Amino acid sequence: MGATDGTPQYIVPPVLGLPRMHMEAGERRDFLPEFVAAADRAGAGEIVLEHGYGAGMGFGQDAYLAASPKVRFADYAEVLASDIVTVIRCPDEAALRSMRPDAVLVTMLHYPTRPHRTKLVADLGLRAVSLDAVVDDLGRRQVEYLEAVGWNGVRLAFVEIARMHPHFAHPSRRPLRVTCLGAGAVGAHAVRAATRYGDPELRAELAASDVPGVEVTVVDFDLTRHEDYLLGRLEVTDLLIDATQRLDATRPIVPNPWIAALPADSVILDLAVDPYDTSVDPPLTKGIEGVPHGNLDRYVFPVDDAAWDELDHGIDTRQRRLALSCYAWPGIEPVDCMRVYGRQIELVLGVVLRVPPDRLDVDSDDPRERAVAHAELGRWLA
Amino acid sequence: MTVPTLGLPRMHKEAGERRDFLPDLVAAVADLGGRIVVEGAIGSGMGYSDADYLRVGPNVMVGSNEDAFAQDVVLVLRAPEDRLHLLRRGAMLVSMLHFPTRPRRVARLVELGLDAISLDLLTDDIGHRLVVDGRDVAWNGLEAAFDVLEREWPEFARPTRSPIRVTVLGAGAIGKDAVEAATKYGNLERAHRLAHLPGVEVTTVGRNLTGRTEYMRERLAVTDVLVDSTQRHDPSVPLVPNSWLACLPEHAVICDLVVDPYLLHESPPTVRGIEGIPQGNLDRWAFGPEDPAWDEVPDEVDRSHRRWVVSCYSWPGVHPHACMELYGHQLAPLLRALLRAGGVEGISREGEYHERALWRAGLRSWVGLHVAAV
User: Fold this and answer.
1) For A195, which of B201, B204, B333 is closest by C-beta distance?
2) What is the ipTM of this complex?
């Protein structure tokens, strides 16, 4: 039958805590007032927001107080003491340790790739739902915004290309050539975005001036491993995009010396955002070797940027082109991002506010409850 | 509240149309208790028997096509254009009705006093379609294209060949899936089998390049598979005039995922994106250059330059079971919500998630919006 068909299973409506994300300064995302209103409707008892919530996106306290009479503001520690804590990026270890056992954490936990953190959450007695693991019956993620990964990255890459190419907006220039490595979900959005310069308005403007458009070529792993082919491809590439999902993160797709094949004024866009890790053997590397790893504070790296030199000396960075990389591409447009995430997570919250995670039924009649049940920590650990 | 009765008639379009809703979908709503009438031999094109449906519950029965159409709610995938008169006044038709592009159909539904929900208009709160099989349009179409290329082009399996070049016209939703499908030869098993060969290079060309004659001629000259996945602003003008097809290598295959019809006498007229190619269906979707289907293209249309073409009005139906499994999965909670609400009268635009989706896809809201807009 499933729990969401009936009445809430909490005796007292749970307190929902919405902390801010204390990562880089450029991380401006918080849930929007409309999400708070939805949480109220979904049955939250009280909604505790951290002081300054939404300020990075221009929302003041009044906007949230107007969204729900259940809202109050508190400091970080008090927010973390709520019954249910919801935040996009997982809080750090100290914050997790400050939560009380039995509290429910709803966040991107990435169980498969963060085993230490997953164990910590379990050891602390927290209950959890990992937003990246909420999937429908066909296995499709319900909380993701890959479209923003593709579009935000591509748009910013074309800003750099326009800046570097004196004839970018001239009808006499040839079509621009984009090479996208990887044909998965991120690649698909990147391709679509690239045919439109990542910016529909710019596309319309250039089309009106009869400026030739963009040709986007996608190559998957059965071609990227052919050195001669790939080097030939790089020679005619204005924008090289890494949208791969590699099975072996210890081997780059484009070793650093191959970057020399790219035209001098070409641009590299890192959408895969795989990290470097030289602490393991063999070390993990990015798909395009040598590209700096960016975040919301710094995501554009000219060839003389110090970030290239700051990488571990074991990483070959000798060949360079202007590169863009950001660990959280959707965060570039925080309001848009949180509007989409908010609507997706509303469905999760509608379940979590009624049913304690350990009572979620993976065979429920309600597809939303089944989706959330798949993401519950106990199910993963089992 | 009385649970409405449900009818599941079969589709009698072409013989190759083997799709019917599966017993799993019937099972998803049978426990609500309403009578469910399925047309005899339902599912037989996919290996099911009447007994598979009857086994679902005592309220499931087998009847004629007319019996199925006589129920309170009638569910059929493709719009039953020639069967609308079989529904009784006040009944509800749930089908791919495409209200925006079929104004005559909308008028006919209203005239007959029917309620309706258009499956293609069922969306979530942020506009994503809830009942859709776009992925199979791309994968099944590309699979058919590579089937032909592999069969007809001796170079295909030679280890010394260059990467196969696919040009995808259009970067919309179907084009997105077409790119991924093309990189895998339209079929994962084939991609695995051919993993030792140079793979597939897929180039997507958007609207801001497809109109440039010189560029397109050069592009076509190096294209092994040409895919049309465009959504044209002006369907009265072809994207690729027939004369351009002469630029394609002789062995090239044209993959038509859009399947626009030729409607030369409508105002404005509609022509196909790639001029001159025949349109296929579930009975026949591959056409060689000598196929008589080319001669069935209207005489006013230039069809002098020809290559192999794959085209099918219902690409998802090429693999009927997978298609209906997906549709059934997507539809089950919506159908359940509809029947549980007692039909359209119980659906509220402010209701729960599925109710809101049903409300938005309803004929009443479509007509209401349309009238309001006028």
Assistant:
1) B204
2) 0.85
